[in-house]
Design brief:
By secondary structure, this protein is α+β, with helices and mostly antiparallel strands. Among the domains are: about 30-85 and about 110-225, no CATH class; about 365-480, Sandwich (Immunoglobulin-like), CATH 2.60.40. It has helices at about 30-45, 85-105, 110-115, 115-130, 135-145, 150-175, 180-185, 195-215, 215-220, 225-230, 245, 250-260, 275, 295-310, 320-330, 340-360, and strands spanning about 65, 70-75, 80, 240, 315-320, 365-370, 380, 385-395, 400-410, 415-420, 425, 430-435, 435-445, 455-465, 470-480. Strand 11 and strand 12 form a beta hairpin. Helix 2 (about 85-105) runs antiparallel to helix 16 (about 340-360), helix 4 (about 115-130) runs antiparallel to helix 6 and helix 4 crosses helix 8. The longest helix has 27 residues, at about 150-175. It is elongated. The N and C termini lie far apart (about 85 Å). It binds iron/sulfur cluster (2 copies). One iron/sulfur cluster binds near residues 246, 273, 285 and 316.
Length: about 475
C-alpha cells in the first residue's frame, strides 16, 4: 500500500490551513480549578513587582528584582550574586524534575493548567466569549458579512487583547528595575530604549500566540509534547474516554430503540459536547492525541451531559493506559501513583531542595578573590627580598558597611603585606567595604631577603571582619626567582 507522507492518519493534509476552533464555554470542577490557576498565576505575574521589601537605605526596595546593572537578583530576603548563579541552575534543575514528576503522575498536567501559553490563551478565549458570545454566536458572526456591529465587536476584542498583551510586556520589564519608576518613565517617554523594545516584543508574542496561533503552538512549536510522550508510562493518569462504557455510542432516542430491541447501548450519546469545549479541537473519543493538552474541560462537559441524561458521570476522566487495557480484559482498574519513577523524582526534589536550602541558610556574607600580577610575576628588592603584586576583590553581601583585616598565610616569617590607599592596624591592612558591594584593592606582599623561597609558594589570602570575625579566603601563589 502506498503511504502519502503529506497526509495525516485522519486524512488531512499536513499542509492544510489550520481550521479555526470555536471552543464553547463549560462549567464544572476542573473549569473552576483552571480559573483559580489562571487568577493565581496571572495575579502573581502582574502584581509581584509591586511588592516592596525593606533591605535598608542603600538597597533596592523591590521584593523580586533582577538588577542587571548591579548584577544581582533579589527574591524577598534572598540576594543572589553573580558568583552564586548555581542557585538559579539548581532552581532550573528542580523545575525540570518537578515537570517530570507531574508527567509521571498525571501526564500533561503542566500543559493543561500551568503553561503560560495555556493560561494566556484561556484568558484570550474568555475575552472573545465575553465580547462575541459563545461558540454558536461566534461561528455565526464569522460567517456573516461584515457589518458595523461585527466590526465594532471585533475591534473591541482586539483592543482588549492588545491591552492585555501590552500589560504582559509591561509587567515583564518591571522585574528589571524599580516598578513605579519604570512605569512613570515609560509613560513620560524617559525609559531606556530596551524597555520599549521588550514591551514591544512581548506585546507581539502575547497577541499573536494567544490570539491567533493558540493550539498551533502546542501542535507544532512546543517540544514538550514530544519529550513528554517519551517520558510517560502506562501508569500515568491521562484524560481518557471510557470506550468500554461509552460504545456503541448513539443518541438517547436511538439508544432507547436499540435497548428495546435488545441491542447493546453505550453511555455516549454522541452529543459532541466534549469536542465543542476542547480548546484544541480534539475528539478525545478517538484516543490519546498529541493535540490533547489534558486540560480536562471535556470531562466537565461530559459530566454535565451525563447528569442531564441521568447516567453516571466519569465517562471521560483521568485514567491510565493500564486501566484501559485491564477494562478491555474485564479486570477492575488499579492505580499506582507511588512507583519507582515517582519515588525517584520525589526523592531527587527533596534532596536537591534540601541541599539548596542548606547552602542558602549557610551562605557566606563575605568573599574574596585574588588575581596575581601577570607581568612582572615578582620584583627583586634591593635588600635581596622579593615582592609580588595582586589585585584583591573583597565582597560584602551584608546591608551594612564592614571593615576587613587582610592577611596572608603560607609565607616565611617576616613577610609584610600592604594594600595601596588602605590604612593598616597591627601590620594588616583594614579595608572598608561599603554595604552590599565589592571593593578592589591593589595588594603588595613582600618577603625579606635571606628567606629560602621556591619558585612558587602556595599561599592563602584571608579577610576577617573586624567586628564579628566572619572570614573568607582565596588561594594563590607567591612567585620568586628559581633557586640556583
Ligand atoms: S481533549 Fe479534553 S483534555 Fe484534551 S485538550 Fe481537549 S478538552 Fe482538554
Ligand atoms: S460529551 Fe460525553 S456523551 Fe457527549 S459525545 Fe462526548 S463522550 Fe459522548
Amino acid at each position: 500500500m502506498r503511504v502519502d507522507e503529506n497526509v495525516t492518519a485522519g486524512g488531512d493534509s499536513y499542509y492544510a490551513a489550520a481550521r479555526k476552533n470555536y471552543p464553547a464555554a463549560v462549567s464544572g470542577r476542573l473549569r473552576t480549578i483552571k480559573w483559580s490557576v489562571l487568577i493565581i498565576t496571572l495575579g502573581i505575574y502582574y502584581f509581584l513587582p509591586f511588592i516592596r521589601w525593606d533591605r535598608g537605605p542603600d538597597a533596592p526596595g523591590q521584593a523580586v528584582l533582577i538588577d542587571m546593572a548591579g548584577r544581582k537578583a533579589y527574591f524577598f530576603g534572598i540576594e543572589i550574586w553573580p558568583q552564586e548563579v548555581y542557585y538559579l541552575t539548581g532552581l532550573l534543575v528542580l523545575a525540570s524534575i518537578a515537570l517530570f514528576l507531574m508527567n509521571a503522575v498525571a501526564g500533561r498536567i503542566w500543559c493543561g493548567y500551568l503553561c503560560p501559553q495555556t493560561v494566556w490563551t484561556d484568558l484570550y478565549f474568555a475575552v472573545e466569549r465575553w465580547i462575541e458570545g459563545d461558540r454558536r454566536d461566534r461561528i455565526l458572526m464569522d460567517r456573516a458579512p461584515m457589518s458595523a456591529g461585527k466590526l465594532a465587536r471585533k475591534a473591541v476584542k482586539h483592543l482588549i487583547w492588545l491591552l492585555i498583551a501590552v500589560g504582559t510586556g509591561g509587567a515583564w520589564v518591571l522585574y528589571f528595575g524599580d516598578a513605579p519608576t519604570i512605569i512613570k518613565d515609560t509613560f513620560t517617554g524617559n525609559a531606556a530604549p530596551i524597555v520599549y523594545i521588550w514591551i514591544g516584543l512581548l506585546t507581539f508574542t502575547t497577541y499573536s500566540l494567544a490570539g491567533f496561533m493558540r493550539e498551533q503552538v502546542c501542535l507544532y512549536m512546543c517540544p514538550w509534547p514530544r519529550i513528554q510522550a517519551a517520558l510517560t508510562d502506562e501508569w500515568a493518569l491521562n484524560v481518557t474516554y471510557r470506550t468500554d462504557r461509552g460504545e456503541p455510542r448513539m443518541s438517547v432516542r436511538t439508544g432507547q430503540r436499540a435497548k428495546a430491541a435488545g441491542a447493546a447501548v453505550g453511555d455516549c450519546i454522541d452529543c459532541k459536547a466534549c469536542v465543542q469545549v476542547c480548546p484544541t479541537g480534539v475528539d478525545i473519543r478517538e484516543g490519546l492525541q498529541l493535540g490533547c493538552i489534558q486540560c480536562g474541560l471535556c470531562i466537565d462537559a461530559c459530566d454535565t451531559v451525563m447528569k442531564k441524561v441521568g447516567r453516571e458521570p466519569g465517562l471521560i476522566g483521568y485514567d491510565t493506559d493500564m486501566n484501559i487495557a485491564r477494562r478491555a480484559e474485564g479486570k477492575p482498574p488499579i492505580y499506582r501513583i507511588v512507583r519507582p519513577r515517582t519515588v525517584l523524582y520525589a526523592a531527587l526534589i527533596v534532596i536537591i531542595g534540601a541541599v539548596m536550602a542548606y547552602a542558602l541558610a549557610n551562605r557566606a556574607f563575605q568573599g574574596v578573590s585574588v588575581l596575581h600580577d601577570r607581568n612582572p610575576l615578582y620584583v627583586g628588592l634591593s635588600d635581596g627580598g622579593v615582592r609580588n603584586g595582586y589585585t584583591v576583590r573583597l565582597i560584602n553581601k551584608r546591608q551594612e558597611a564592614r571593615h576587613f583585616a587582610l592577611t596572608v598565610s603560607g609565607l616565611p616569617a617576616g613577610f609584610a603585606i600592604e594594600a595601596q590607599g588602605v590604612p593598616s592596624a597591627a601590620g594588616k591592612p583594614v579595608v572598608d567595604v561599603p554595604a552590599d558591594t565589592t571593593r578592589e584593592v591593589r595588594v603588595l606582599v613582600m618577603v625579606p631577603g635571606g628567606a629560602a623561597l621556591p619558585a612558587s609558594t602556595p599561599i592563602e589570602f584571608y579577610i576577617v571582619d573586624t567586628d564579628n570575625g566572619e572570614k573568607a579566603s582565596a588561594s594563590d601563589f607567591f612567585r620568586a626567582p628559581p633557586p640556583n
